[in-house]
Amino acid sequence: MTAPQCVNPHCRQPRKRRGTEQAWEGGNGLCRPCYQRWWRAGRPQSGVPEPMGNHERMARARAVSAEIKREQRDERLREYMEYRDCRYTIAKAAFWVGVSVWTAKYRYEPEWRAAKEESAA
Ligand SMILES: [Zn+2]
User: What distance in angstroms lies between residue 27's CA and the mean position of ligand 1's atoms?
Assistant: First the structure.
């Protein structure tokens, strides 16, 4: 018995068996990759969205990693400020949050001072 083809006109790949079951992978007449793409796009009436190009994929990955880095940086800064609020030295606070003393002194310290002045005002 031949496998049914994916109904996506841009794909037309034969669908695979789902494990040992008699069912086919995917759904709605689509192969699994097409079905997943269609589902994630919010099941548009227009059909399966085009697969992401390499360019778009890279751009998205970069945006995500930049966002993560920003969050990690904010988290470190918050932690640093807490240590400094507790009167620990720059070197100790830097060591505990895992940044260099240089970074602490020239990047975090001005922000901490600014935050302190703001709360004092
Ligand atoms: Zn397909």
Answer: 10
Other residues' Cβ atoms within 10 Å of the Cβ of residue 88: 15
Among 43, 112, 37, which residue's Cα sits nearest to residue 82?
Answer: 112
CA distances from 37 to 11, 51, 60, 100 (A): 12, 8, 16, 43
Q: Where are the domains of the chain?
A: 1-44, 70-120
Distance 2 CA to ligand 1 centre (A): 16
Q: How far is the CA of 61 from the centre of ligand 1 (A)?
A: 24
- Would you say 13 and 5 are in contact if contact means Cβ atoms under 8 Å apart? yes
pTM of the model: 0.56
pLDDT digits (tens, 9 = 90+) for 56-96: 888 889 999 999 999 999 999 999 999 999 999 999 999 99
d(CA 39, CA 36): 5
